[in-house]
Amino acid sequence: MTWQERVRNLKRDVVAIALAMRDRRVPWYAKAVGACVVAYALSPIDLIPDFVPVLGYLDDLVLVPLGLLLVVRLIPADVLAEYRVAAAAVAERPVSRAGAVVVICLWIVAALLLAIWLGAWAVGAFGVKIFGEPALS
Predict the structure, then answer these.
(1) Axis-axis angle for helices 3-20, 28-42 (nearest 10)
(2) Which of 34-38, 47-51, 81-85, 107-111 has the lowest mean pLDDT?
(3) Residue 15, SS3?
(4) Mean predicted confidence (pLDDT) in 112-125
(5) What's the distance, CA 38 to chain centroid?
(6) Angle at 101 between CA 96 and CA 104, to 5 degrees
(7) To bridge 122 with a disulfide, which of 36, 40, 128, 133 should be the other Cys (CB 3.0-4.6 Å)?
């Protein structure tokens, strides 16, 4: 098995575990460990930041596969096989560029609303002048 196939299988297993967390046949302790592993694997925040030489990527290369291995052993084999097939089908679906544009636009609108709110708060709380305008009294 090549490294590319192993990485593809790891990605498929993360999706399969995320799907399996909703199944009643999966024990509660497998759901708890699985939720932690999926959250860590998909989270942009790492235990050790990636900019730290060697150690930054080492936690991703060690912790995620070990966590996946543990969860795979905790989930019943028939349930996991069912969700691996579903995860492979999800991976084959085309990417929605329109959906990505909508999500990006929502984030931009949210950031602008936050900036406006913070600006109004700064003017009211501290009398900060924005763009050289006199502060509101």
Answers:
(1) 130
(2) 47-51
(3) helix
(4) 84
(5) 8
(6) 125
(7) 128
